[in-house]
Write the structure tokens for this entry.
Amino acid sequence: MPTVVFEKKGKPVLTVSAPEGGSIQDMCDDHAAPVPFSCRSACCGTCRVEVLEGADNLDAPEDEELDVLDAFGQAPPKHRLACCAKLKTGGGTVRVQAVDE
Ligand code: FES
């Protein structure tokens, strides 16, 4: 089963056993992960996360996610939007950390 580790200031604060194909947003909601959200629809960039490990275990981003990341000068695989990113089926560990402004 895939695992998502949420980190804060470089330290793990929450580890979630994730469902195959699960969304990062659902995991954040279900486990009170330290990732802020606002629009939840790839518009504002509030939910940007740095992917510290396992970017290959996430589905490829769609154009709307890429556009928002680009507006902040960021891009996959190092950065993703938590409201968009989903785990691939059969994925392993993913470590993410909210982007601090
Ligand atoms: S919450 Fe606005 S882009 Fe994800």
Q: What stands out?
A: The chain has two helices and five strands.
